[in-house]
Each structure stands twice: as C-alpha cells, then as structure tokens.
Amino acid sequence: MKIATAAYPLDWLDSWAQYEDKLAAWVADAASNGADLLVFPEYGAMELSTLDGVEVAGNLQASIQSVSDKMEDVAALHLKLAAEYGVHILGASAPFHGGFAKPVNRAEFYTPTGKRDHQDKQIMTMFERAPWGIDGGGPLKLFDTALGKIGVLICYDSEYPLLAHALREADFILVPSCTEALAGYWRVRIGAMSRALEQQCVTVMSSVVGPAAWSEAVEENTGMGGIFAPPDTGFPSTGVLAEGTLNQPGWTYAEVDRERIAEVRKNGVVRNRSHWKEQETRLEGLVNQDLL
C-alpha cells in the first residue's frame, strides 16, 4: 500500500466551492500517485472560518464555532471524494462542539465504502487549555480497515507512550499535527518516531505549514510530512521511510508492506513491543539512593 501525508497550507476561502475545489485537487493528486491512505493535519479545517468573513476568522472563539458548524458538510465532501477515488482519508482535524460542554479537537476518518468514524484528541496543549478552551473528547479507538489496523494520536498525544501502547495492535498510527515553531515540529516528530520504535509500527505525521495572518488561532505554522518505522529488520536504518521539505506544501509518499511490520514484531533485532511489560517488573524494585 502507499501512504500520502500532507504538508497543508491554510488558504483564505471566498466560497464553499473554492474549498471543494481545493480538497478535490489534493485528493486527486494523491490518488493519481497511487496513494491508498491520505492523512491531513491537525486544525487544517481552521481555514473554513474564512467563509464567514474577516471578523469571524480573526476572532478565536468565533472561528472555533464557525468551523464546528461546518463539519457535517465537510464530512459529506470527504465521503464523496473517498468513494470517487477509492481511498481512505483522515480528514484535517477541527474544533467540534457537538454534545460536549466544551469543544473537542476531532479528526474524522473516512473509507471508500462510505463508512466514517472519528478520533478525539486526548491531552490538550497549553494553548488549547487557555485561551482556546478545547477539552479532551471521547476515548482512543482502533480502526480495523481494509488497509490494516489504524490508530490516531493527534499532535501532542503522540508524545505520550502509554497512549500509543494502548494502540499496540495498530499497524499504523497517524499523527496529524499543527505546530507554530520548529521546536514544536520536532517535539511531535520525535514523539512519532519514538512511538514507531516502541510499538514496532509505522507512524505517519502530517503538518499545517505556512502563515495564516488572518487567524488568531493558527497564524504561524511550521512542519512537513513524515512517515516513520522502527529502525530495524526490513526498514531503513534511520527509521525514516519518507520526509518532505520543511514548510513546502504538498504530499509526502511512502510504500509500506504490512508483512514487514508483522516480521519486525516477530523477528526484529529488538522486541520493544513484546518486552514492554518487563519495564513494570523492573520498576517494582526502584531504590531511592542517597549519595549526598
């Protein structure tokens, strides 16, 4: 199978048709290059706030509500494109209000057979806690698909090993991200690469890139696409299957064989995933040693 992961710029949109054309062009491009799984980034949906004008797009809380209100229309468009091109799509995440006291950060997953489900972010960054007012949503999910078992850790979630271990049956862990600074990009990338090592799976990082001066929420963005694996049997020694160019919009692609994931888990030089529980027995003997 072939994976496409996005370095996605946020655009000013003057009409819904303009958004339809943009998304269709991105999906068509990936599909024409043979991609089976397309991964869009965290908060890539924030550009939809521009459809309500400058005052809404430039106001944090108004833009959050604006985007949330449009997500059913966004889902219909993604389902149409997934079916038309025969691809699985992780859509760009968005703040979503439905049924919660506070909005959550939600990424929707779409299949070419017309099915959809979602993954909510688990742990909020400092800016999401305040001033955004975003909260943790529903639980982690493991999606059983025609491409394999897929989990999603949205941005900051990828920096937490226990969340990834809960998804240890996943062949692929998708990591949509939105990071303002280079340091933020590297925190998430290091997290994604570490989770690939620990769970002996493939992780897929997507990024929002470039400026969005009209937004109070996502005005500066740094990143690129990356696809990572354990640096072990059957995979590159660096653990990097593919990486894009920093802040250059477009798709990054990698061919992935699920049999290699099964093989490295069974016969890898190291067996981090199967040896995971040995940590717990070693910690039982922890000694606080005073050397002062």
UniProtKB/TrEMBL annotation:
It comes from the Bacteria. Keywords: Hydrolase. The lineage of its organism: Bacteria, Pseudomonadati, Pseudomonadota, Alphaproteobacteria, Rhodobacterales. This is Carbon-nitrogen hydrolase. PANTHER family: HYDROLASE YHCX (PTHR23088:SF50), NITRILASE-RELATED (PTHR23088). PROSITE patterns: CN_HYDROLASE. One of its GO terms (molecular function) is hydrolase activity. It comes from Tritonibacter horizontis. Residues 1-258 form the CN hydrolase domain. Pfam families: CN_hydrolase (PF00795). Gene3D superfamilies: Carbon-nitrogen hydrolase.
